[in-house]
Amino acid sequence: MRTKVTVKDRVVLGETSTEAFVLFLAIAHEPAEQIVLHLPLSLSTVRTAPDVFDLPVGEQRFYVNEAERQEAFARFLVAGFQREQRIPTEAGDVVQFRGTRTAAFRGIGPEVAEDTSNLLVRIETADGTIVFKSYKLLDVRNREPEILRRLDTKGFRHVPRYVGELALGRDSDRVVLGVATEHVEGVDLFSWFVQGWRDELAPHAPSTISFEEAGLDLVRGLGAATAALHEALFERRPGPFHAEAFGPEDGTAARRAALTNLGDALRRLAVLAKAQDSEAAGVAAKARALLFDNRPRIEETLAGLNAGIGTMKAVTHGDLHLAQVLRRASDGEILFIDFEGEPARPRGQRSLPLPPIRDIATMVRSFSYVTHYAWREFVGGDAMAALALLEPPRLSGSERAVANRLLAWEGRAADWFIRAYLEHTSLYPGLAEDETLQFLRGWMMEKAIYELRYELTHRLANVLIPLEGILAIATVRGRGPELLK
Question: How far apart are CA 354 and CA 68, in angstroms?
């Protein structure tokens, strides 16, 4: 609440006798950076909801709420797409709609979802439901709208249909404020797998391998779909999707970034090791010691990034994991979502070209998260239960059997995914199998270290998941994809 915010531009989107919708473009001045904010607000003289912000102005009183939560704003969006509307701002710029014409407005969806920097609104129209993603923290290099538009133009079937965008400015100088896509009724694959294991490991669950086999078939399809995604985003001709060479400087930069993240994680663990909670302090101290003991192997694994020098880097998903893939309820089709890149990377760097194989590495790491979440639920929700997966032989009886089963599934899932991808991609024709796997393991290590720093910053309960992954990748100790052994 002490952050200084400067309003740079504004535009009135609509108003009635009691309420106005105003879009503010503002700058939040943080110590290390300036963040561009997109703030569509409802300003009313009457209370429109119980949780609105009460703003006294002189003798008057206004009630402020996020505009996206109001039906009138949803009507404005639909009308804007229908008319391809252009609205001048006070600073002389223009807010404009771009995309396809939508059908008539029918209503606003039952829920509003949000994440760290976006707010999603479901809007019912005469020919179906659309989702408008409102970007709250703007990134002038956000390529998600371009990616969605390109995939839609190519008829790529593994992505929700692109509807359009709301942007400030024109052409290449524009800043996209929000993007609309077709709503997909389905579940993300991370939730699908965790729920499947929950049912599979429940007491008195029927003895069956149907879930594991169905999951592996889905994983194989995911590998082929990911290869198709990379092919659709790959462009050899000059242009915004033009591929570039992954050079020595790129490998060096990736290794340095990973080691920087590792250094930061070690510092955070040192602080946690002095915490008053003796159990947490002991775990942090043990984790730090394990990282120091295995640092030579970690750095050796990161050196595998050099195996991909001379291959291509291009526009990729950038943050590909199971929660970024939907399984459509009607037909089980796989659909990729959220092309903004990793949230912890600085804005402006999330959409930089990367080797496509890095998406494969991040997806493989996602299978590890499924294993840990399923194991955590099986043993009663204890986050410290991940310690047991570091040394499964110390478990006894049914717990050891379940741990071995989950770890074996993780290895098979990763193996099937990698094989399916390599069978369907044409982007690594000159790379030998051992070089491909060194390159892949290097990116898996880079991602696991990124996860460690992220979890230490945002979700301490998950810290042991990337720690176990780092040690498993560094030592290649009898688990993980057969291809990587």
Answer: 34
Neighbours of 112 (CB within 10 A): 14
Q: How many residues can be counted in the chain?
A: 485
Q: For residue 409, is pLDDT > 70?
A: yes
Residue pLDDT, tens place only, 193-251: 999 999 998 887 665 567 888 899 999 999 999 999 999 999 988 888 999 999 999 99
**Domain parsing of the chain, residue ranges:** 4-67, 71-183, 188-484
Which residue has tokens 């942090």? 284
Whole-number Å distance between alpha carbons of 213 and 221: 13
Name which of 372, 368, 384 is nearest 473 in CA terms.
368
pLDDT exceeds 50 at position 480: no
Fold topology of 71-183? Phosphorylase Kinase; domain 1 (3.30.200)
Amino acid at the residue 131: V
The yes-or-no answer to whether 71-183 and 188-484 have a common fold is: no
Closest residue by Cα to residue 186 from 222, 212, 160, 163? 160
CATH class of 188-484: alpha beta
